[in-house]
Every structure is written in structure tokens, then in C-alpha cells.
Design brief:
The chain has 348 residues and is of the alpha/beta class.
Amino acid sequence: MTTIRQLAEHLGLSPATVSRALNGFPEVGVATRQRVLEGAERLHYRPNMHAKRLATGKSGLVGMIFRASSERGVDPHVMDFLSALSLAFADSEIDLLVHIAPDAQQMEHHERIASRGQVDGMILSAPEPDDPRIELLARRNIPFVVHGRGTDAPDYAYYDIDNEGAFAAATRLLIQFGHKRIALLNGPQPMGYARQRERGYRAVMDEHGLPVPPRFVANGEMHEESGYRAAATMLADRARPTAFLCSSTLQALGIMRAAGEAGLKVGEDLSIISHDDVLPHLLAENFAPPLTVTRQPIRDAGPILAAMMMARLAGTPVRELQRTDKVDLIVRGSTGPAPKWGGEAWSR
């Protein structure tokens, strides 16, 4: 491995000048800095990160603390997202510091990382309204970006998708198919995305004068078992739904299991629309029947958030780093006309 002293000797410069050039000190001329960078590339020089931290006060680390489900450990959606985020940082001088913590220990972990000065910045996920993690990082002046929005008008850098619009469009499609009894299986209630999705769903149901009894809206962990349990309970009801909206293809898998046990054929007796179209091991088009989805793969958020984090570290203002993407509605075989037995809307 080439050392900074060897690089300096090769260029005929002092190690101090080379160090200043590599770390962007303003007193180094443009021509000299370019010469040093080209030499470093040619000799495959990689800086000693400990020495770089001493020189610049920067760690070269970005932190992210994921929530561990109380029931199933780490959500597979998280691992898919993390792989894309890691690849996006791979060509930069930034490394990821990843922790997994239960909900009850989230603040403890964030406070420990913030107080130790381990990271140059943080990426947060699944924000809640008045999220204490955001207040902590803002107070400590630690740059951060957020995957999602805890409020409708956040004052921080974020990347999100139009959850409300996606579930409004999905609800509207089911109503166009003649469905009046549409149940919702959502993510955990405190999460911003879950609140946005329910808001979009309810707005369209209200627009068409379709009441929703509380027992036909469920919040919980987004895995197959939770989808199965909630759907089985709803399908055993005398006023069972003719269609489901759900927040994950894993939940959709559970709904399909419950439908099969109830003797219902998906796409004919029961319609399903799910969010999340592209989990590598669970592709929506491979379901039987293929699953109708609101499509915006979580993997796509990785490169976007990595670019935002690097821009934030470079001093880009927060107002220039606020992005919400539209979501595609992909119609497949899991949706169809409402069955004749489900013609009546729920009573208020």
C-alpha cells in the first residue's frame, strides 16, 4: 500500500503539502491539488482514515440505526434497502456505520453515537411526528437526511414517496371495479408513511360515501404472519371485505393464505393491492395470480439518500434536499370486479 510519504517523494513535494492538497485546504493551489490527486490515483493511494480524522476532524463515517421488529427481527425490506445504500457509498470516501436496535432503545443508540462524535452524518428512517431523533441531531448540529416524512411540511432534508397519493389511487381503482367494502392492512400506526397511506385511503372512501368500520383497518408489523392473522379475522366477519389494500407484499402473502383457507379465489372472489413491488426473493409478478401494486422499490431510495447525504455534508441547504416521488400503479391479476355477494357497503 502506498503511503503519503511515498506519494510525496514521487511528486517531489513535502508530505505536509500532499496532505493539505488531499484534504482540500484552500492555501494549496489548484494546479498542485490536481497534480496530487492524479498522482494518488496513479499510485492507488488510499488515505489512512485515522490520520485523516486527526487532520480534518472528519470520521468518513455515516451512521444509520435500523429498528428491529419486536416479533421478527430485521425486516427484509431493510436489508434490501441497506444493500443498495452500501453500494451507493462504495465509490466515495464514506463508509456506513450500521446498528440494529429495538424501538425502546432507539434514542439511547442515537444519543451514544451523537455524543461520541463517531459519524459525520446520519440517515434516519421511518420518522414519526415530533420525532425525538430529529430534534437530537439538529441540537447537536449533526447533518442528517431522512427516509420519509414525519410531518407534511418538514424543515429537514428528506426523500419520500407519495404514500397518500399511491393509496388514494389504489382505493379509487378498487371502487372503479365496484368494490365498496375495502379493508386496509397498514404498517405501524406511529410511522409517517402509515398515516399518509391511511389518509389517502380514507379520503377516497369518504369521497364516495363509503364508511369504514374500525375493525376493517389494521396496523402492525409488515410480515406474512401479521397479514394472515388480520385478514383471517376480517374474512371471518359476516360483513367481510371484498378487497384489501396492504403496505407490503409480505402482508399480501398472508392475505392470500387467509383467502385460500376461506375458500376465496383471489382476483375473482377477493381483490388485493399491495405496496412494494420489487423484493428480490418475492416478486409481485410471480404471485398466483400476479399482484397489483403501487410500485416504488425501496432499493431505489438507497442511491438517492446517499447522494443527499453527501450533498448535505458538502453544505447544500436543506431546502434543496427535499424530494417526494410519485408512485406507479401496476394493475395485474389480483384485482377484478367486486363479487355479487359483496354488493352492499358497510353500515356507518
